[in-house]
Amino acid sequence: MPYHAGTMELNLDIDAFPYPSRRQPVIARRGVVATSEPLAAQAGLQMLQRGGNAVDAALATAIALTVIEPTSNGIGSDAFALVWDGAKMHGINASGRSPASHTPGLFASKGLDHVPATGWLPVTVPGAPAAWRDLHAKFGRLPFEVLFEPAISYATDGFPVGPVTASSWRRTQMRAPEVWHGQEFRGWYDTFAPGGRMVSAGDMWAFPDHAATLREIASTGAESFYRGRLAREIAAFASVTGGTITEADLASHASTWVDPIVTDYRGYGVWEIPPNGQGIACLMALAILEGTDVATHARESVESYHLQIEAMKLAFADARRFVADQDHADVPVTGMLDKAYAARRRALIDDKAGLHPHGEPVRGGTVYLCATDADGMMISMIQSNFNGFGSGVVVPGTGIALQNRGSGFTLQQGHPNQVAPGKRPFHTIIPAFLTEGRTVPIGPFGVMGGHMQPQGHTQMVVNQVDYGLNPQSALDAPRWQWMRDRAVTVETGVAEHIVQGLRRRGHEVTIVTDGGSFGKGQIIRRLPNGAYVAGSEPRADGCAVGF
Question: Distance between CA 86 and CA 89 in Å, rounded?
């Protein structure tokens, strides 16, 4: 069943799949939910079947993921989302700000040259509960409390742990005693390793404290988390264990509705959330690639890999220099997305691996999910505690595992992303969306995984637009990841002639067997007839489900 959307041609016939050894795409008419855990996807599907819309489905999925995939996210996460309401794209930045006490002097007084990854210092105000409330208030159809029912059921009655989640959970259990010694970590051990219990795939786990907290967030519209009993619990635990977050920090939190940023790539619009997120790196890489002949080379060729890697390196050089909280820094977003600037950066690419400094543009542990419904509403959403379980701090008696997003700050004097009070850090988590032109929705997509995310986004767009892969094949295809300087990792599925060809060009290539390090993605595409075709990451436990 081939179909055309603009210049993009996809073929859904099974004999046309270039990567047929994994999964087949899901095709459904009335709605689809895709995420990294099947039970969470089912939670979202329940909302669609109960008359909810895509946002209801996404929120139920996100809330369920805090229970089912605690290795990547929790109640103390941050979140971002892009929502196509049927006529317009909306963006929400629900990342939290640093505590009022987080001055550069605080970190200097502790003799630190970077923000640590665990403990209280990297904890910023969690934005996920406010994101759930605010997305529901603007777009939701079902009662807010209904969206919490599947998650509360899983947390109360127990759920079987998926294989990929179990592997990540167990790695943290084995490492934790070496690094987590203070009283601030006792809640983590009581929750995720009670009595020294080690997790295995298929084990049943229940989180009654987590369930109680979800009930309170549901019944108070998240008010308790920011200005009520839960806020007092968080602040009190911080006070007695060396933490810096206060009730005033929590009460000052607010989500921000933002205008999404977009670049045109071969007739398609690729949409991201503006900084403080790194989504602009994907858009910059695509703007650079648009002027190359990447599409004339086979997808599995040295030339294609080389051009994509070099474009990504150029984009990252600028993103790491300029991306910051726009309330605190002059981020040259317009200049970074300017096509003439992209052309100047493109001119730096030759047939050898380069070391690219940032340019001067003109100034002007994560879960991903997406959902669509029968009316054409679509949402791309991501929430995260960052590294594994985040900070390692779990507020006792609440199940609230706090993120460590403050580790995204730099302590470099004068850098736009330097730590400061009430500031949002550089964020790795980014949802994305694809349109034909800028007005015809194609669908949400995303790839989680630290600095792999804009690289994954870029590869998903190239796979679909330049190489015509359907959503599942686009996710199945082998991936590359630029690490630093000339260092690149590739999956074992990358052909030997490509590996050797890249090395001859000066890339320092390492073959990595752990597929999870290359990100975990989901894609939903709307067909011209109104049905949806979806793919889910083969490197994770998840799936796409629809009806």
Answer: 8
